[in-house]
Amino acid sequence: MRSRALWILAAVLLLAVLLRLGLSDWLPNTCPLRRLTGIPCATCGMTRAAAALCHGELAQASAFNIAAIPLALLTVVLMGLLAWEAITGRAIIRPVWQRCSVVVTWLLVALMLVAWLVNLHRYFS
């Protein structure tokens, strides 16, 4: 359990460092919906938003994708829980998820629906 938590924390921190160093500038557009139709999906702009967050640019992150800041906050909470798991060696995330999964899932669905509507509004305006 501790090993898994440490690996996930290390992977997320490495990704944050790579985004801070400009990884998003080199990544291709891999969104299948956008490639086939030209229409943005709910997560279009999320990589650039994550890079902006790694630079501390909250307004720019929201401009790329409105869901970026709430998802970043959720990620920070999950990283805190993973760190707690790594320190204590006890399962923390699974019991919390069992209690909150339905609410969190529906909130994420609603958030991504709003993000998609905003992306579509920007596209068609």
Nutshell version of this structure?
This protein has 7 helices and no strands.
- In terms of DSSP E residues, the strand content is under 5%
- Taking the alpha carbons of the first and last residues, their distance comes to 48 Å
Biggest sheet statistics: none
How does the helix and strand content classify structurally? mainly alpha
Q: Taking all residues together, what is the mean pLDDT? A: 90
Number of helices: 7
Which parts are unreliable, with pLDDT below 50 for 5 consecutive residues or more? none
Q: Got a strand count?
A: 0
Radius of gyration: 16 Å
Rough outline: globular
Total count of domains: 1
Describe, in plain words, how this protein is organized in 3D.
- This protein has one domain.
- The chain is built from 7 helices and no strands.
- With 125 residues, the chain is mostly helical.
- The termini are far apart.
- The longest helix is centred in the last third of the chain and has 32 residues.
- The model has no long low-confidence stretch (mean pLDDT 90).
- Helices cover 78% and strands 0% of the residues.
